[in-house]
Amino acid sequence: MAQREPAPEGGRATDRDALRGRGPLRRPRPDLSKADRDAIMGASRQLFGGIMMPNSRPTPSERIHSRLGHPVIDADGHYLEFQPALDRYLQEEGVEPSTILAGELSLGVGTWGYVGMDPDERIRRRASRTAWWAAPTSNTLDLATATFPALLNERLDELGIDFVIMYGSAALVYPLIPDDEIRRGACRAINRYAADAFADYADRMTPAAVIPMNTPDEAIEMLDFAVGELGLKAVMIAGLVQRPVEDPSGGAYNVWWDTLGLDSPYDYDPFWQRCLDLGISPACHSGSMGIGLRRSTSTYMYNHVGHFAAASEAFAKALFFGGVTERFPDLRVGLLEGGAHWGVGLYGDLLSRWQKRNREAILTYDPKRVDGTLFEELARKYGGVLVERAGATAPETTGRWAEDGPFDDFAATGAESLEDVRDRFVPNFFFGCEADDPMTATAFDRDRIPLGAAISAMFSSDIGHWDVPEMTEVLEEAFENVERGWLDARQFRDFVFGNALRFYTDTNRDFFRGTVVAAAVETELSRPRETG
C-alpha cells in the first residue's frame, strides 16, 4: 500500500484553516460521551473479538494493488448508519427519528411507506417501489465494515484501497425531506454523526457532509457548519429540489424539479462561490426513482436502472445551459454512481446541438427564410394528391411561436466555438464509475470523443451497498478493464487515482494533506497535466 504519513494531531483537522494546515483546530463542541463514542468506534472489535477478522493471505485486490505502483483513491464508498447512535444525534437536533421518512416521499428514491401498503393501495396511489434488501447482509463482516469505521480502517489494505471518501446511505435521503425543520435538523445530525464516527481515521478516509439545497441560504448555512465547525472537507449536495407548481388545478402531483442552474427561482451563484472560497468540490448523488417514467409499482430494478445517470444529466445540463460553468470555470462537480458513458453522450450532444443551433446557425431555421414562390412551384409540380386534397400550395412553416425570441439557447454559456463548449464541460464534471461498469473505458477513448477530449471517470467502489457483495473483490473487478485491454496502465492510473486527485485538489491543494497518499499526490501534482 501507499507509504503512510502521520495523521494530523488528534486524528483530523477540524476547521477549514486546519484542513489546509493553517491554524488551530475548531472551538470545542460538546460531543457524545466516551461510552457513546466507544459504541460507534469500537463495536467492530466487540462484535468480532478478533475471531472473524481477515486472515493474512493477500486478497485478489491486494495482489492487484501491489502491481500498480500508485495509490488507489475510492471516490464513493458508503457507510451504513448505526441507527441506535444516529437516533441520539437526531434527537439532540430536535428530530424524532420516526418522523424523517413520514409521508409520501417520492423525491428520487421511490415512495416511502410502500412496504406498509397492500397491493391495491400501491396501484391506486401509483406508489413507486423503493430499494429493498439493499445491504450485503449475507456477508456479516462486510456489513459491519460498512457500519463501523474502525473495522473499515483495519480492512482497507485488504480492499486494495488507500483512501476513500465515504457517503452515507440513509443520509442520501436527508437533503430531500420536505419539512424545513426536520430536513435541517436531520442534515445537522448526520453531519455531526459522520464527523465523530470518522474522526480517528482521517489518514485513510473522510466522510462527505450532507448539504440540502432548497435555498442558497440554507445550503450556505449548512456548508459553513459542516466545513467551518465540523471540519469536513467533502460534501454531497442534492442536485434536484422538488417544488410545487403554483396552480391548484394540477392536483397533488403538480410539482416541478429545480435543477439549480437553469430556470430556478433562486440564484445559487453565492453557493457555488462559497464552495470555491472554502475549497470544496461538491458531489451530486441524487436519484430519479419515482420521477417521470421511473414509477413502477412493482419492480425496484425497473425504477433503479439508469436513475442516477438521469438525475445527474439533468443537473449537469442545468449547470451548463445556465452558465454556471462559464461563470465559475474553477468549479468541480462530482456526478456519482451513474457511470461515465452518459457523460460521453451528453458531451457529444452538446457539441452537435451547438453546431446546429448556435446564435448564427439557428438562422438557418428561421421560417421567414422560406422561398414561398419556389415552394409553391415545387408543390404544383410534385404535390399531386396532397395539393389536390389541401386545395393550397403555400407552405405551412413551424416555429412561429419563437418570433419574439430568445433565439440563442446557448447564450448563458458564452460559447462561441466548439472548443468553448468543451471547455465549459470537460474540466468541470467528474463521473463516478463502479468497478463492474463495462462502459467505463468509453470515457478515455480520445480517438472517438470529439475534440480529442477525455471524460474524467473516477473509481467509485460503492462498498456498503448491494452491488458489492464482496468488498475485497472490488479493485480486482475494476482491474478487469486492463486485463481485457479496454484501458492501458496510464488510463487505469487516472481512473483509480489521478482523476479523483484532480477533483479534490483543483479546489483544495491540501485536501490530501496528512493522509497516507499525501506524498504520491504531491508527486502527481508536480507533473505536467495532459489537457483536454
Task: Please tell me about this protein's structure.
This protein has helices spanning 16-19, 34-41, 43-48, 60-68, 83-92, 119-125, 140-147, 149-159, 180-197, 216-229, 269-278, 300-304, 307-321, 324-327, 341-357, 372-382, 384-390, 418-423, 474-483, 489-505, 518-525; strands at 73-78, 163-167, 205-211, 234-237, 241-244, 255-258, 282-284, 333-335, 429-433, 456-459. Helix 4 crosses helix 19 (474-483) and helix 7 (140-147) packs across helix 8. It is an alpha/beta fold.
**Which CATH architecture of the largest domain?**
Alpha-Beta Barrel
CATH class category of the largest domain: Alpha Beta
- The CATH superfamily of the largest domain is Metal-dependent hydrolases
Secondary-structure content class: alpha/beta
Major sheet attributes: 8 strands, parallel
Strand content: 5-15%
Number of strands: 10
Report how far apart the termini are.
30 Å
Assembly status = single chain
What share of residues is helical? 25-40%
Q: Into how many domains do the coordinates divide?
A: 2
Report mean pLDDT, rounded to a whole number. 87
CATH topology of the largest domain: TIM Barrel
What overall geometry do the principal axes of the alpha carbons give? globular
Low-confidence stretches: 3-30, 40-52
Strand order of the largest sheet: 1-2-3-4-7-8-9-10
Total number of helical segments?
21
